[in-house]
Every structure is written in structure tokens, then in C-alpha cells.
Write a structure and sequence with these properties.
This protein has 2 domains: 66 residues, no CATH class; 93 residues, Homing Intron 3 (I-Ppo) Encoded Endonuclease, Chain A (Alpha-Beta Complex). It contains 7 helices and 6 strands, in the order αααααββββαββα. Helix 4 packs across helix 5.
Length: 179
């Protein structure tokens, strides 16, 4: 499909207001066709428009670098990924083991959000059930520290967590000593 003078005039007038995709939609073309035509006819955007489109369009290397230059923060968050495994307690559903974030030596994964570091189980609780009262812990019904299945989490005090460990025979002083 040929480019008419009206199409080119439209592109020249809106090059600093619209991204290639938007220009293409308005003209019934794809963004690559718009880009190639702009290059062919020497139609260039202002530096300010290029920066704006990089930030808005998340062009490779543009979002973080662009936001840093204009003094804004990125709300780019790493997605939480998990794999499902069968739980050691048959009455519970599958455990969801986090595979996308750092696992500490104690078996708990951590996530950084808004300049704060959370244990993954606490973060999952916050996102699914809301605020955690002061002095309360997020405990696991399944006894698997890596599990982030919201159905396996419950709130309790330190005493509740210790009583749960004793009841299930998980307390460190209950384990047999090998000599």
C-alpha cells in the first residue's frame, strides 16, 4: 500500500505525540512499516519525544535508564514463579515452591519491594490477606519453608509456632541424637 501525501503529513505532524504503533493504528499500517517509512523520508523525532517514548514503551535499555535520567522510579517488579510439588501432609493441597527469588541458607526465600526485604511467605500473606498484626508470624501448615501456597499459611505467635513444631515432632530437641 502506497504512502499518500496526507499520510506523510499526518506522520510529520504527530511524530512527537504518537508512538509508531499508534501512528500505524491511525493509518491502518503496522509499526515496522511506519518506522521504515520515517527512516526513508528522513522524518525524525525530537530528543524529548524519543526519551518519552522509551520510558512509556519500555524499549530495551530505555525504561530504567530513562527513568533514572528524568528522576522517576520504575515500578518494574520481578514476577514470582513457583513449581507445584506434593505436600508431605496428604490433607493439604500441593506446596508451591518458589523458584524465582533468592533462597537464604535457612530455606526461606526473600523478595525486595519498595526498598524493603520480606520473607516470601510474609509477602504472599500481605498480598493475599492484608496486614500482619504486630507480634504475629506467618507460619506454615506444611512445614516447608520454601512453600508460598496461601492455603498453607496461617498467622500465629512464636508460642503457636513452637507448639505446632512440638505437636508434629519437628522441634530440634525432639530429634534423635546420632552417636
Amino acid at each position: 500500500m502506497e504512502w499518500t501525501k496526507e499520510d506523510l503529513k499526518f506522520v510529520r505532524e504527530n511524530k512527537n505525540k504518537m508512538m509508531n504503533k499508534e501512528l500505524g493504528e491511525a493509518l491502518g499500517r503496522n509499526k515496522d512499516n511506519v518506522r521504515a517509512t520515517m527512516q526513508y523520508y528522513g522524518i525524525k523525532r525530537s530528543k524529548k519525544a524519543i526519551m518519552k517514548f522509551r520510558v512509556e514503551g519500555n524499549i530495551r535499555g530505555g525504561l530504567k535508564a530513562g527513568l533514572k535520567r528524568i528522576g522517576k522510579k520504575s515500578n518494574n517488579k520481578k514476577r514470582i514463579k513457583y513449581k507445584r510439588i506434593s505436600c508431605i501432609y496428604p490433607e493439604l493441597s500441593e506446596c508451591w515452591i518458589c523458584i524465582s527469588h533468592i533462597e537464604r541458607t535457612n530455606g526461606y526465600h526473600v523478595v525486595n519491594r519498595n526498598k524493603k526485604r520480606y520473607r516470601m511467605s510474609r509477602y504472599v500473606w500481605l498480598m493475599n490477606f492484608g496486614k500482619i498484626p504486630e507480634g504475629m508470624l506467618v507460619c506454615h501448615k506444611c512445614d516447608t519453608p520454601e512453600c508460598i501456597n496461601p492455603d498453607h499459611l496461617f498467622l500465629g505467635t512464636q508460642a503457636d509456632n513452637i507448639n505446632d513444631a512440638v505437636k508434629k515432632g519437628r522441634a530440634y530437641w525432639q530429634k534423635e541424637k546420632v552417636t
